[in-house]
Write a structure and sequence with these properties.
alpha/beta, Rossmann fold, six-stranded mixed sheet, four-stranded antiparallel sheet, 36% helix, 22% strand, binds adenosine-5'-triphosphate, ABC transporter ATP-binding protein, AAA+_ATPase, transport
């Protein structure tokens, strides 16, 4: 496998609040990696750094093995809120990255119409965001991230706003998209089972600031389904992640004077 994204010795702060301290992480091409960690630790910040919306104060971010200072537009980023434009239809929202890249209206229409079916949105191309369910909105947002043409996708809690059944359907759908496209995907989630079920590796982010993450390989065989949760390797990993997150919550409590 070849390296797709790497953080090497990266430090970043908001004012006097340090978020990352000489942080290191390497993601290989075609991997699907889950990131999990306590709320407010800096997961979204990490994505904004990878996407080029923020720059590190120290250290290097590499794309395809090369230091990359201009990352904007090279990475598909799906932020926590779907940020669909209310006055644009599904097709117009999804086609936005192509518009920014200067494609003709006709080329955009053709490409979007060709892609809509595999996102389950063919019949909704002229609908406005307010007419869509949460799952559909997520799919439009995901399609927009894919149409940037980037083969690295950062998905920040893509399913958090969805109900249980839709969430499970979307997890399966995301997994099939990952297999079809061969893209490298990073997924932030607060759900330990979701983190394990989808990923090749789970990266647990701990500490304030975050230093070296704990990286855990998921040894549960693919294809996975809901019954994979009964696999002993699944149980063991869930327990390990839970213990890590719990000990980190205690450490924070102690620092706060608990
Ligand atoms: N633009 C900003 N300016 C100053 N502080 C910020 C900014 N964005 C985030 N922070 C702070 O940095 C810390 C990390 O935020 P971030 O959103 O990256 O965490 P997170 O792990 O993604 O949180 P959550 O799990 O709740 O989404 C938080 O304490 C947050 O309040």
């Amino acid at each position: 496998m070849r390296e797709k994204l790497a953080f090497s010795q990266v430090s970043f702060s908001y004012g006097d609040q340090p978020i990352l301290d000489r942080f290191g992480l390497e993601i290989q091409k075609g991997e699907l990696v889950s990131l999990i960690g306590p709320s407010g630790i800096g997961k979204s910040t990490l994505f904004q750094l990878a996407a080029g919306l923020l720059q590190p104060e120290h250290g290097v971010i590499r794309l395809d093995g090369q230091p990359a200072t201009k990352r904007l537009g090279q990475v598909g980023y799906m932020p926590q809120r779907d940020l669909l434009l209310a006055w644009r239809t599904v097709a117009e929202n999804a086609g936005l990255p192509l518009e920014i890249q200067g494609f003709s209206q006709r080329a955009i229409r053709e490409r979007v119409e060709q892609e809509l079916p595999r996102f389950g949105l063919a019949e909704w191309k002229d609908a406005y965001p307010e007419e869509l369910s949460g799952g559909m909105r997520q799919r439009v947002s995901f399609m927009r991230a894919l149409l940037t043409g980037a083969d690295l996708l950062l998905l920040d809690e893509p399913f958090s706003a969805l109900d249980g059944i839709t969430r499970m359907e979307m997890q399966e759908w995301l997994h099939s998209m990952w297999q079809q496209t061969g893209s490298t995907m990073l997924l932030i989630t607060h759900d330990i089972d979701e983190a394990i079920l989808l990923a090749d590796r789970v990266v647990v982010l701990l500490g304030a600031p975050i230093r070296q993450p704990v990286e855990l390989r998921v040894a549960v065989p693919r294809p996975r389904s809901m019954s994979s949760r009964n696999d002993p390797a699944f149980h063991a990993l869930r327990e390990e992640i839970w213990q890590l997150l719990r000990s980190s919550a205690h450490a924070v409590g102690e620092r706060r004077g608990g």
